[in-house]
Amino acid sequence: METMAKTNARILIKTLAGIPLFSGLEAAQIQTLLGASQPKRFEIGSRVCASGSPSEEMFVLLSGLLGVVGTDGSTVATLTPVTTMGEVGMVTGQTFTSTVEAIDSSNVLVFEKAAFEDVLASDSGMAACVYRNIVNLLAGKIIKDNVRVRDYLREKVEQEQRIKQYRHRAELASDWLVSKAGFDPEKLARSLDEHMQDTISLRVLVVDDEPAIRRMICEALADFDTIEARDGEEALEEIDSEPPDLIITDIRMPGLNGYALLEQVRGKYPDMPVLGISGYASDEDVHAHHFDGFMEKPMNLKDFRHLVESTVGID
Fold this sequence. Notes:
Blueprint: H1 4-16, H2 27-34, E1 37-42, E2 47-49, E3 57-63, E4 66-69, E5 75-79, E6 84-85, H3 87-92, E7 99-102, E8 106-112, H4 113-121, H5 124-179, H6 185-200, E9 203-207, H7 211-220, E10 225-229, H8 232-241, E11 246-250, H9 258-268, E12 274-278, H10 283-289, E13 293-296, H11 301-312
Parallel strand pairs: 9-10, 9-11, 11-12, 12-13
Antiparallel strand pairs: 1-8, 2-7, 3-6, 3-8, 4-5, 4-7
Helix pairs in contact: 8-9
């Protein structure tokens, strides 16, 4: 009869076989590779690796959430299971190009370079398979980055085209009102300016730990008075300083997350609308916290703009 330890080991091997780094390896080879690794737990805020430091380790995220930290201390990207980090250094000897910290409590497999290379040297077939997997991982990351840039640029171009169309329509409408309906040009211009000022005066607080997301949202809401916050704590300072008309917040953030921010805002400003955005939150969690609206990342900017306008009542 199979012992509990053997059963757990078999389940672990089966689970690890689904990790891209181990793709194509036999159970015995995976077990051999595990001999070159150590499991390690990183609590929230602890550093996994630092930019510029020697790349003597490779990491495989098993559970939790890690963040890539920018030079200004903000989180510029998030890493989810089963992401591999440091594989470039394992092959080329390059230093780490990014600083990575734990956003949630995370379990990670840590491979020491020397032990990793010794294990691969003992089995040429395993080594060929692992290096092929590393190449595929790098190619996948490059493709993913290219897709993200492409989608962002496409959304930006479409937004600029819509702005041009709206401007053209506004000019045509203005000319028609002057020439056909007999409106006084100066009074019409003043009336339009007053209406635009009402829209611009709407203050929107954008809360997200990723600068690229904050920038994209602010560009999508260029005719609003937008301000930014990197996390829940910074958002509360902005809200207490000058309450906004609308809050748009990410949900998964280090420190005070979107759920906790919503709870504090509801306590102080029960009528202030709050929209949630996330690429990780479950529908059940979102509905349980009663946001005024929610949109999943990556967002369609046209739909997002419509959600914002309907929330603040200018639809």
